[in-house]
Amino acid sequence: MLNASHIVSVKWLKDILSSSSKFRILDGSWHLPNTGRIAANEYKEKHIPGALFFDIDECADKSTNLPHMIPSPQEFGDYVGSLGINNDTQVIVYDNNPQFPIFSAQRVWWTFRLFGHKKVCILEGGLPKWLSDGGQTTNETVSVSKEKFVVHFNKHLVKSIEDIKRNIEKPEFTLVDARPDGRFKGEAPEPRPDTKPGCIVNSINIPFMNTMNLNERKMKTPEELKKLFQDSGIDLNKPLVASCGSGISACILALSAAMLGKEDVAVYDGSWTEWYHHAPAQLKLNVPK
Measuring CA to CA, which residue among 130, 138, 135, 171 is closest to residue 53? Predict the structure, then answer.
């Protein structure tokens, strides 16, 4: 039996690679649309030995034009089953971002938890840290047998646009936005050309990078994270929902809270991309004309 917390180190992963425990490593890399990078192609060129690729845009609801909205429970079960994952599999997710210790792996982490799988953790520092600490990579892909994954959907971990509208009328939770402050304030462009910056009425901004120690490619300590939430006026004893641009970096705030023992932070899946295009104008602040 593996003993994994939400975050694991390169040393921890190296140690289990030689064990007989049942685990699956997933490359959960994803890049903003304005970077020009294609994570699936980069995975084919170089990844941690034994890792399979978890495509955030593929394991998603294809019936909407919103980016990477959550799939149906059956779609998720079929997708992860095809990756050789069942309900007893320890899942380790990493990503490949040159600037941030975690950038998209947390979305995969959250999605597994949303569908009832708690045996999931994140490799802190991602592929860059793995390489700098002497980890090997390969371009060979392993073949796995399809497994049966039984989904237990945790509906309280995800919020819809209607949930956010109702909360504005009758507050039940605090909404915190993980985007950089320039986008939140309407002063810096969104990465999608059809979406202008701004924020949701009554939301609070905690830029996701503020949860990190970028020089060491680590998340901040629990003490630092606790102070970050407190200084932002957030009471972790009360209901909290995270938002961002499209539901990716919001999961970093959910992860940060989980590191402090608060594992019930929900994510507004559509986030600002959905809100900008579908919410009433009076519920959007700082949007440039």
Answer: 138
